[in-house]
Design a protein that fits this description.
332 residues, mainly beta, Porin, twelve-stranded antiparallel β-barrel, 0% helix
Length: 332
C-alpha cells in the first residue's frame, strides 16, 4: 500500500468498527441470543483515494461481550422479566480475514471469511440449571465488488454490490446434544444480497491532511432456510480520518444500525431487531508502505431493542493490513 499513512494517501488506512449489537431473548419461550453485528468497512476507496492495483489482506480480531439485559432503551434485571430462560452472557471472539484485489482505479473485489469463536450461557428458570454452548466455526463468506466514479467537484462517490453466501453451519450443538437457536449459529443458511453507496471528501484540518467519508450498506436475505430468515439490516457510517503525523492517523466514526425482526418458524420475531448507534474512536499506524496496524474501541450511544435482548457496553477490534507488492515490471 504505497503511502498508506503518508499525507498524500492518508485515507487508505482501514476503518474498522466492531459493532456490539443485539442478542435477543424470548419471553416465556426459548431465549434468543443473536450474534454480534459487525459492519466492516473494507472498501478502501471509501477512505478517499484510489488504491494501487494489486492484492492486500486484512486480518481483524473483534471482541464483544453481551451480558446486559435490555428492554427497549432501558437495562433491566432478571427479576423484571418473565422468561423461561434467563440469559447470562454471549461472548464473541471473532477473526475476520479479508482478501482484497484492486483491478483498476475504478473497480475492485473483496472476499471476507470470518472465524467465529462464540460462547453462550443461560439459566433455566424453573430448575436453576445452566445450559451453555461453545463453538469455533467458519462463518458465512461475503463476496463484494465495488466501483468508484470519477471525482466530482467536492465528493468522490462509489457503489458496491455482492452476496453473503450460506457457507457456515446452522446446526451447532452443545455436549448434551442440544442444538443452539438459529440466531446464535455461525451461519444463517441463507443467501443475502449486499448493496452499498459511499462518498468521501478530502480536507485540511489545521494543515493536517484529512478526509470525511460516509457509507450506507444494506443486507437482505433472498430466501428462508429450514424455517429461518434473518432480518434485513441497514448500516449508516460517517467518519473522519485525521493525519496526526505521517505515520499515525487518528480516526473517529459513528455507526447506526437498523435491524429488522427475524422471520420463520425457527425465529423469534418479537425479540429480535432494533435500532443502535455507536461511536468508534481509534488509530492506525503504518510501519511502512505495505504494513499497517489499527485498533478501535466502540461505545454505544443509543440502543433500542425490540422485546428483551442482551446488549454490550463496549467492544473493540485489533487489525493488521498487508499489501502484496507487484512483481517487477508490472503496474504499481
Amino acid at each position: 500500500m504505497d503511502g498508506v499513512a503518508t499525507p498524500e494517501s492518508i485515507s487508505k488506512i482501514a476503518w474498522i468498527c466492531a459493532a456490539a449489537a443485539a442478542c435477543a431473548l424470548a419471553g416465556k419461550a426459548n431465549a434468543s441470543c443473536g450474534s454480534i453485528f459487525c459492519p466492516v468497512n473494507t472498501n478502501w476507496d471509501v477512505q478517499g483515494n484510489p488504491l494501487p492495483t494489486g492484492a492486500r489482506i486484512d486480518l481483524r480480531y473483534a471482541y464483544g461481550e453481551q451480558k446486559d439485559l435490555r428492554s427497549g432503551t432501558d437495562k433491566v434485571s432478571p427479576d423484571e422479566v418473565d422468561l423461561d430462560e434467563i440469559e447470562q452472557e454471549t461472548l464473541n471472539r471473532n477473526l475476520f480475514a479479508t482478501f482484497d484485489y484492486t483491478l483498476s482505479q475504478t473497480w475492485g473485489l473483496s472476499v471476507q471469511a470470518p472465524l467465529m469463536d462464540r460462547s453462550h450461557s443461560h439459566l433455566v428458570s424453573d430448575t436453576g440449571e445452566q445450559e451453555s454452548w461453545q463453538f469455533d466455526a467458519l462463518g458465512d463468506i461475503r463476496v463484494l465488488a465495488r466501483h468508484r466514479f470519477a471525482p466530482g467537484p467536492a465528493w468522490v462517490w462509489g457503489v458496491g454490490a455482492g452476496l453473503k453466501l450460506p457457507t457456515a453451519s446452522f446446526d451447532e450443538a452443545n455436549d448434551e446434544g442440544a442444538v443452539a437457536e438459529r440466531s446464535l449459529q455461525p451461519g444463517t443458511g441463507t443467501t443475502d444480497a449486499v448493496v452499498s453507496v459511499s462518498g468521501n471528501r478530502q480536507a485540511l484540518i489545521h494543515e493536517h491532511p484529512s478526509a470525511w467519508f460516509v457509507e450506507a450498506q444494506a443486507q437482505h436475505a433472498f430466501n428462508e432456510r429450514s424455517g429461518y430468515e434473518p432480518g434485513g439490516q441497514l448500516v449508516l457510517d460517517a467518519g473522519l480520518t485525521f493525519g496526526a503525523t505521517p505515520k499515525l492517523n487518528l480516526l473517529v466514526q459513528t455507526n447506526v444500525l437498523f435491524k429488522e425482526h427475524d422471520r420463520g418458524e425457527e425465529a423469534e420475531p418479537e425479540d429480535t431487531g432494533g435500532t443502535f448507534a455507536f461511536l468508534s474512536p481509534g488509530f492506525a499506524y503504518a510501519v511502512n508502505n505495505d504494513i499497517s496496524f489499527y485498533a478501535f474501541l466502540q461505545v454505544p450511544l443509543y440502543q433500542d431493542v425490540d422485546g428483551v435482548q442482551l446488549t454490550a457496553d463496549t467492544a473493540f477490534s485489533l487489525g493488521f493490513n498487508y499489501r502484496f507488492r507487484a512483481a517487477a515490471g508490472s503496474a504499481p
